[in-house]
Amino acid sequence: MTNSNGNGNGPVLYAHRMGIDTYKQPIIFLRRDSQICRSEGFESMARIQVVSGTRTVIATLNTVGPEILEENRVGLSEFAWKLLEAREGDVLRLFHQDHLESLSYVRSKIFGHKFNEHQLQAVVRDIARGSYSDIHLSSFVTACSGGKLDTDEILSLTQAMITVGDKINWPSKMIVDKHCVGGLPGNRTTMIVVPIVAAFGLMIPKTSSRAITSPAGTADTMEVLSPVKLRLSQMRKVVEKEGGCIAWGGAADLSPADDILIRIERALNLDNEGQLVASVLSKKVSAGSTHVLIDMPIGPTAKIRGMHAAEFLRDHFMAVAHEIGLTIETVFSDGSKPVGRGIGPALEARDVLAVLQNEKDAPQDLRDRSLELAGKVLEFSPDVAKGTGLGIATEILDNGKAWTKFLAICEAQGGFFEPTIAKYKHVVTAPRKGKVLSIDNRRIATVAKLAGAPHAKAAGIDLHVNVDGFVEAKQPLYTIYSETPGELDYAIKAIRSEDYVMKVV
Amino acid sequence: MTNSNGNGNGPVLYAHRMGIDTYKQPIIFLRRDSQICRSEGFESMARIQVVSGTRTVIATLNTVGPEILEENRVGLSEFAWKLLEAREGDVLRLFHQDHLESLSYVRSKIFGHKFNEHQLQAVVRDIARGSYSDIHLSSFVTACSGGKLDTDEILSLTQAMITVGDKINWPSKMIVDKHCVGGLPGNRTTMIVVPIVAAFGLMIPKTSSRAITSPAGTADTMEVLSPVKLRLSQMRKVVEKEGGCIAWGGAADLSPADDILIRIERALNLDNEGQLVASVLSKKVSAGSTHVLIDMPIGPTAKIRGMHAAEFLRDHFMAVAHEIGLTIETVFSDGSKPVGRGIGPALEARDVLAVLQNEKDAPQDLRDRSLELAGKVLEFSPDVAKGTGLGIATEILDNGKAWTKFLAICEAQGGFFEPTIAKYKHVVTAPRKGKVLSIDNRRIATVAKLAGAPHAKAAGIDLHVNVDGFVEAKQPLYTIYSETPGELDYAIKAIRSEDYVMKVV
User: Which of A18, A99, A133 sits opposite B68 (nearest CB)?
Assistant: First the structure.
């Protein structure tokens, strides 16, 4: 056994699938009494390069006793197994991890130095390869958070993320897209904008993310109604047939580094501007977009809390987009209260269907916001005069063409399913007669997440009244839905006072 | 099964020792098809509170297939097993982790706000309890690095670290100590200072750390010669008998949060000033010290690179020490080149023995530095006039009393062992005739670590010449020692150019 530049002549080791799911962390297991651990000095938590044929993975070592592994085996976690495309008994070679030069760039950043383009390319490449442990990933995310990336660095990060991922080319010169800088429960406009725009005839191959810190992302919500894990080839077929799709970006491998970073951001409950801009714009370029509308809801408990933060973010979006040759428009929208009634994948999907099907009691706010955004996207087209987009979008929704297109997109993606309803529920009622003064977006998201959203699709919250609504004492304010009694109980427990989520005065 | 404030009435689960070593990360394993995973919505990487009798641990979940675990079992990693003091078949209860308020303080710090005392108490308490995952720990360490803690925060961090650990009381009003702010290969003065000071009659219960980012810490080096994993009660017996000890601080549980943070700092190769001050001073207070001498080697490739950084660090040491009622003195010393000849636990131990035994060719620099420091520590005593300490220390070393005391301390700690010599070696020779202009402390540490130090005790580097020495062409410059051929090969490979470690001109 030698280092990776030499020829291995130590013990022959064979792959064994341990069946242990460590999510997106490659872990390998070795017997602590094995010859390789003794001869190579491998200890638990060591970072080890694992080579199987032409594939290489950097994994963290857990040493084990004789009960669960034979001596000449390398146990692989599910993620390591997948990355190596291993089969039981494959011959594996193990090496000390080569020194990761890019970690010294992260250290330098922590000490206040700027990243240059070369450095961020190296960092992002190593992340995409899975060479960073959770400790390294968390340090990188933390070092970039709190406004610590300037415009140059955000541009370099964006370009690096574009470089490491695949890029799609479409058979159209204009590819439009829309993106919402989340933080607003229930704001599921994408699923209404895409069918309107596609029905008009623009090409809109939409890839969405899953929830990062919210109870539902568009991909989670769309998944209630139709498959979203589309490979690139499948996405292409859907878009070529219907002019649009609503797919999960992660399945297409468009931004492998970003998918790894999102897990860390979620655990830290951090979603920093620099990574936000780089993540959004790199995914747009990779997805082949040319014209992108960015919706930025602003409100005291939304992700963007005020005009100052909104303008800062918009300026960075504009500056970076300009450099990478993307046309973008930004819209500041009301982020002071939830949109629609449902919060959580299935409940939000139900609201989307009501709007698309022009139901009488469909949430008006969700309809209005979707039409405004769809109108602005349509105005990217040279055939649509400024100021006329909204009218065209409204017509396409009202005459049922949007709903027909949505169904066709679902069919092309693999079928349409009706949303399910959760088994367990708890109704919260008004403590007094009065007016709803405010709803805390962050707290409502916390309660919905504790109830099980987004992993439990039907879990979440259904609002029976929104801000400025009048209620009688004991009138239902909102219902918490959960798929298990434990989660329902946990969500209820989180409501610490009668005005924790909704303030009635 | 309910949350932690309710009564469990779900499936009964039994502890099972998996035999998997995940170092200081508590991990639990559950069958992904088990009732508890389905009913509680537990997914891989979830943070779960595990309760066994009166003991509680927050662990990360890895879900597993049916091959390696029965359905009604909770598999425990070695560290989780130890923290819970579990026995096979113990009944365990599992809960969703309670919201960790202290993580919001870390987030706030990342966004540029100052920690207050209450917040750092909460963070350190949660860390000491094992409630932070690697991702959270790394974020905290990163957020505090690069000079981001001010004096107030360092004081609060120090106090918090004192609060969570045990504290020792000694039967003497004056307890002296010395500490070196590492970064200088071979600078193993502690093992010479302690026996001199103890032989004089001052009480010096020394706890040292293992290497963080260096090839050897004092605890690693002392462990070559004598056991260092002493429990508090054992340390007390040694000190009461001999007036001093040289023990590993981690075994005494004096600073449980610091021991957890050190693993993260090592993985990130970060050793920030704030945590350095808090770590050193909290350990001194916990160890019962009243008077502490701090040695600060300064050099371009030492941990402290210049006078500015040294003064910054000294001022923080002084300010925090004053607030917590500790008397400290600081010494700036030459950190421009390695001390002694050996680098790595066994090779450094050999140098220490040569000095203690007054061997003719003992490294003069190690002897001089040790005597200077010992003299200053002796001057803490009201019986020793300023300026007379060095003479007294020299006499104690020269007349053999220090060596006798060292042997007595080793015997009291569990016996004295001779250092071993590594099996594999590689000699690096001078590329030309000339003078050694410089030695890169950081690179020499890297090569020694790749050779296996500190985990392989006999591994490391033996210098045959130091800075300013003259050499002939082909004359040996240094020898790399390793316990395995793989590590030797890896260390050799790291030497990228002929003047990578030592510059001969």
Answer: A18
Distances (CA, A) of B329 to B180, B223, B294, B326: 12, 28, 6, 10
Rounded to whole angstroms, the Cα distance separating B204 from B185 reads 24
Using DSSP bridges, classify how beta strands B176-180 and A434-439 pair: parallel, antiparallel or unpaired.
unpaired
Domain identity same for A397 and A287: yes
How many other CB atoms are found less than 10 A from the CB of residue B308?
10
- Dump pLDDT digits (tens) for A118-135: 999 999 999 988 889 899
| A208 and A309 together in one domain | yes
Contact partners, residue B54, CB within 8 Å, separation at least 6: none
Question: Using an 8 Å Cβ cutoff, are B97 and B132 in contact?
Answer: no
Does A6 map to a domain?
Answer: no
| CA pair distance B273, B284, nearest whole angstrom | 16
Check residue A174 and give its pLDDT: 96
* pTM, 2 dp: 0.81
Low-confidence ranges of chain A (pLDDT < 50): 1-9
State yes or no: cis peptide before B454, omega within 30 of 0.
yes
Name the residue among B43, B139, B269 with its Cβ closest to that of A138.
Answer: B139
A298 and A209 housed in the same domain: yes
Residues B333 and B482 in one domain: no
Calculate helix-pair angle for B117-128, B101-110, nearest 10 degrees: 120
Residues A386 and A433 occupy one common structural domain: no
Q: What are the strands of the beta sheet with A176-180, ordered from one edge? A: A176-180, A291-298, A327-334
Whether B273 has a pLDDT exceeding 90, the answer reads no
What is the rounded average pLDDT for all residues in chain B? 90
Per-residue pLDDT reduced to its tens digit, B413-454: 999 999 999 999 999 999 999 999 999 888 898 899 889 898
The H-assigned helical ranges of A22-93 are 35-40, 78-83
Residues 6+ apart with CB under 8 A from B265: B141, B212, B213, B271, B272, B275
Q: Which CATH number is B406's domain given?
A: 3.40.1030.10
Q: Are B73 and B16 in contact (CB under 8 A)?
A: yes
Asked casually if ipTM beats, i.e. exceeds, 0.90, the reply is no
What angle, 0 to 180 degrees and rounded to 10, lies between the N-to-C axes of helices A256-268 and B134-144?
A: 80
Residue A489 with chain B: CB contacts under 8 Å: 2-3, 6
The angle subtended at Cα A163 by Cα A162 and Cα A169, nearest 5°, is: 65
Token pair 């150019």 is at which residue?
B497
Residues A23-58: b if buried by 16+ CB within 10 A, e if exposed: bbbbbbbbbbebebbebbbbebbbbbbbbbeeebbb
> Which of A483, A497, A482 is CA-nearest to residue A443?
A497
Residue A491 has a CB neighbour count (10 Å cut-off) of: 26
Query: CB–CB of B64 and A19 under 8 A?
Result: yes
SS3 B291: strand
- Residue that wins the pLDDT comparison between A414 and B252: A414
User: What CATH number does residue A439 fall under?
Assistant: 3.90.1170.30
Sign of the CA dihedral running B67, B68, B69, B74? negative
Look at residues A183, A191, A206, A348 and name the one whose alpha carbon lies nearest to residue A276: A183
Q: Is the same domain home to A361 and A498?
A: no
Q: d(Cα B465, Cα A499) in Å, to the nearest integer?
A: 74
Which candidate in A47, A58, A62 is best for mutational testing of the B interface (most B CBs within 10 A)?
A62
Q: Do B110 and A452 touch (CB under 8 A)?
A: no
**B295 beta partners:** B180, B331
Q: Which two tokens stand for residue A64?
A: 């084990």
**Do A68 and B43 count as a contact with CB atoms less than 8 A apart?**
no
Written as one letter, the residue type at A243 is: G
Residue A384: inside a domain, yes or no? yes
| Secondary structure of B120-166 in HEC code, one letter for each residue | HHHHHHHHHCCCCCHHHHHHHHHHHCCCCCCHHHHHHHHHHHHHHCC
Q: Do B45 and A64 touch (CB under 8 A)?
A: no
